[in-house]
Write the C-alpha cells for this entry.
Amino acid sequence: MKSGSSHPGSFTLPPLKQLAEHIFRQTLAGIDIPAAMQRKLARSGSLIRCGDVTVNLAQFNRIYAIVFGKASIAMAEGLMEVLAPDFHPEGILAAPTRPPRALPGFRTFLCGHPLPNEDSFAAGRAILNLLATCDERTLVIFLLSGGGSALVEQPLYPDITLEDIQTLYRLLVTCGAPIDSVNAVRKHLSAVKGGRLAAAAAPAVKISYGVTDVPEGCESALGSGPTIPDPTTVANAYCVVEEYGLLPKLPSSIRAKFESRALEETPKAGDPAFARAYFQILLGMHDLFHQAHRAAEAAGRIAICDNTTDDWPLAKAADYLLEQLTRLKQSYPGWPVVVLANGEVSSPVIGNGIGGRNAAFVLYCVEKIAGEPIAVLSAGTDGIDGSSPAAGAVADGATLARAREAKLDPRDYFRRSDSYSFFKALGDAIETGPTGNNLRDLRVLLAE
C-alpha cells in the first residue's frame, strides 16, 4: 500500500515529531465505534447482521448484552443507538472507567486493568449468573474489546483467590511470553475465557462483535476468546509455565494444578456450545491501517503498512522496522516516507520504573536514529501504555543529544524499565488519556 499526493518540495512539512503525533491523533479520530456498529449491524426493522448471518430480534423473549473491554462504553452506547427505540437489552458492562452517563438496563462494574480487581471478579460472577438463565429463546450479544482478559475474571477453581490471580497476571505480563502463550495459561484457569462463556449460555443464540487488531484467524486472542472455540490446550499451558520458569513463582493454589496436571480442557471446535454462536470484527487491523495511511497520505508521505512484527520481541521489531524505513527511503529518493506498523511487541519488565512496551520501543530507537532525519512514535490506541499515564512516546534524531544535555542516559532508563520518565522529562511522552477504543498499538516511523 503506497501512495503520495505531491512532491515534498511543493509545500512545507512540519517537524517530524509533530507530524508523527499528528498521524497518530488523526488515526484515533477516524476510528469511530458507534458508526462502525451502525454500518456492520445494518439494522433493518427487527433484523441485524453478524457477518453473513441475519438475526431476527423479534424471535427472542429476552435480549442480553455482555460488554467488556477498554472500548466497552462506546460499544454499549453504540448498541443502544442501533437497537433504539424498539429493543431494550438487559446487560452487564465491565469497563476500566465509569460511563459518562447511565446506561438503562445495564449493571456497571468498574474493573481493573492490567490486573483484575474485586469488580473484575464480581463482573465475572454476574455474567455467569445471567447466562445461567438463558434458554433457546434468549439472544446474547457480546461486545468485546482489548483488555477484557483482566477486566472480567472468575477462576474455574474455587480455591484460587483474587490475590492468586493478580500474582499470576503479574508473572505472565512481565515474563516476556507472547500474548498467545499468556492467554493459554489464563484460559485454562478461568471460567470466563477460552469459549467458556459460550458454554455457559449453551442453549441461547450468541452473537459476538469485536474491536481488535488481532490478525485474521487469531480472534481467540481478544479477551482470551470467551465465546469462540479455544485453539490452545492444557499441554500448551503446561509448556508455557515450564518454558518461562514460572512454576516455583506461582501461588500454591495454582502451582498445585500444574504440578498434578489437573487443568481441565477448554471447549473446542465442534462443541455443541458453538452451534448457535457467531462472531464478527467491528473494527480491526485494516481499519487502523486505513485511517493511519490516509493521515500519512494527506501529509504528502509515501506510506507502507506492515504488520509483520506483531508479537515480536521489542528489539527485533524495532531493528526490522527501521530497516524497512531505510529501504523505503532508498526506493523513493527525495521523497518523505513513513512506515506504519501495528500490533504489540513483547517487552519483558526488567526494572521497577514507569513505562510500557510503546515508550520502551521508542527508547530503544533513540540511539539508533541519533543524528538522522528520522522520527519514531509508538503508542497504544487505548491511550494507556503499561504502568504509565501515557499512550506512548515519540523521538527524533535530536532526542539523544537533548537527553545528554539533560543528563539522561537512555540505556539506564531502558534497563530500569523507566521509559515514561525519560520521555516525560523531555516533553515527548504522548498523553491522550483513555480513548475509549482499543485496536492495540500503532507505530509511525518517518524519514525525510
